DNA sequence: AGCGATAGTGCAACCCGATTGCAAAGGTTA
DNA sequence: TAACCTTTGCAATCGGGTTGCACTATCGCT
C-alpha cells in the first residue's frame, strides 16, 4: 500500500480522482502551496474541485492551512504525528518588496498560555518587512 | 490646539475634511477598526476616500495596520511613542466559531532575531481556535 | 484678489482570492 | 437495474481591496 492510500485510510478520507492527484502534488512540494499554485501545478484542473478537496483534507487533518502574509492561504501536508499544534509550526517572514515568503525554521513558536477554556486550533505568525536582497 | 491637530502637525499630515473625521473616529474607538467598520461608523462616507486616508495615515505612522485573523485588515491609532515595533504589539486570538477577535494583551511578542540584513516592519501573530464561550 | 498648479475627494469600475449553486457524472446499496 | 448519495466541473457570486478619472478644494505665487 503506498503512502497516499495509507494516508486516506488513516485519516478516513475516501480516495477519489481529484483527491489523489491533489495529495500527490502536495506531497511532492517542498513549500506550502496556495490554491492557485495547485491549480497551475495540476495543469488547470478545476479550481472549485481543488478548493473543496482542500477543505475536506483540512477537516480530516490531512493537511493544515497557513497564512504567511502573502494574502493567499497556503496548504501543506501534515507530517506524521502532526496535530497542527504550535510546536509543529514556525514563523514566516514576508518581504513586502519582492513578495517572497521565508520560513524562519529555527524560531519555533513559543507556547502562549491562553485565557481559561480557550482552545487553540492553529497559529499564524507573520513578520513583514524587507528581506536581505530588498533591504539595500 | 486639540489632540487631532497636534497629531497631524507632529506626523506631518495635512488636515483635510476626511482625514479629520477618520482620525477622530479612530481615536474614539477602543478596538482596532476595519475599513468597513469605519465606513459604517462614519455613516456611509466614501470607501475609497477612507481607504486612501488610511494609507496616508499608515505612511505617516499615524496609525498601524493589524491582521488579526478575521480576514479584514484593521487599523488603530499609534500610541504616543509607538514605532510600530513588535514591543508595541501583541498576540490576537480569533475565534473561528463566533468570529470574535481577542487581544492577548499580557503576551508581548517575543523578539525574533531575523536572518542577516532582514528588516522587520510589522508583526502579526494570530492564534485561531475556540473562545471560552464557544468551547463548550 | 486672481490664476495656474497640486492635492484630495467621490463615484464607478475593476481585481482577485474565496466560495457557492446547480446539474452532470460517478459510486454505492438494495 | 433502480434509487440514492457523493463528487466533480462550470459558471456565477461575494467581498475586501484597489484604481481611473473627473470634479473640487487648497496652495503658492504674482
From TrEMBL, chains A, B:
Keyword Zinc: yes
GO molecular function, one term: transcription cis-regulatory region binding
Positions annotated to bind Zn(2+): 95, 98, 131, 134
SUPFAM superfamilies, A to Z: Winged helix' DNA-binding domain (SSF46785)
Cofactor note: Binds 1 zinc ion per subunit.
Keywords (A to Z) from UniProt: Metal-binding, Zinc
GO biological process, one term: negative regulation of DNA-templated transcription
Cofactors required: Zn(2+)
InterPro entries in the cross-refs: FUR, WH-like_DNA-bd_sf, WH_DNA-bd_sf
Protein name (Swiss-Prot/TrEMBL): Fur family ferric uptake transcriptional regulator
The organism of origin for this protein: Algoriphagus iocasae
Lineage: Bacteria, Pseudomonadati, Bacteroidota, Cytophagia, Cytophagales
Amino acid at each position: 500500500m503506498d503512502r497516499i492510500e495509507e494516508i486516506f485510510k488513516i485519516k478516513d478520507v475516501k480516495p477519489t480522482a481529484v483527491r489523489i492527484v491533489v495529495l500527490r502534488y502536495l506531497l511532492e512540494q517542498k513549500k506550502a502551496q496556495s490554491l492557485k499554485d495547485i491549480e497551475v501545478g495540476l495543469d488547470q484542473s478545476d479550481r472549485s474541485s481543488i478548493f473543496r478537496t482542500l477543505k475536506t483534507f483540512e477537516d480530516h487533518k490531512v493537511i493544515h492551512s497557513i497564512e504567511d502574509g502573502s494574502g493567499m492561504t497556503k496548504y501543506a501536508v501534515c507530517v506524521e504525528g502532526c496535530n497542527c499544534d504550535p510546536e509543529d509550526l514556525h514563523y514566516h517572514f514576508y518581504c513586502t518588496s519582492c513578495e517572497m515568503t521565508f520560513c524562519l525554521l529555527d524560531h519555533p513558536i513559543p507556547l502562549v498560555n491562553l485565557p481559561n477554556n480557550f482552545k487553540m486550533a492553529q497559529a499564524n505568525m507573520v513578520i513583514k518587512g524587507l528581506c536581505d536582497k530588498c533591504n539595500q
